[in-house]
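Appendix B. Chain record.
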Amino acid sequence: MAIFAPLRGQQAAVVDELGLHFIDMKTLKETLLIASEGIVALAYSPADSYLIACEKFNQSSPDHQNLQILDASNGKTLAKFQWRKTPKDAIKSIKFTKDERFCVRLVPQMYSKQPNSIEVYQNGDFSKPKSVINAHFQTRGPRKNEPA
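Structure tokens predicted for this chain:
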């Protein structure tokens, strides 16, 4: 899998069996390799500053944090989270404003009666959310006999 940084296109991220490769598109050379097995979903933030990467959730290692936000300039892991659903959905669960001043992350419910929450981060500080909002998202459509 390979993706290009969306704003300037000056970097590409490529995943293979060795890990995550960062490619400088000006020099056409690899600038960084992060040994990591199992990454199956990638996305850049709107201004190319961050790379979101997710591995499949491993039932045998349930505490493993398989969703991460990386600094696209140096590959440093800025945040790690646990994501139990599909990696494709994990990438969609993190959104940035165009200027990347704000980032929101959907935190799915862990138990059936627990609400989802939305974490709000500001200015690239992922150490602790600036705000947490409880939210109730519909998890399935209404059945035929239920009102919409």
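Further analysis of this model is presented in Appendix C.
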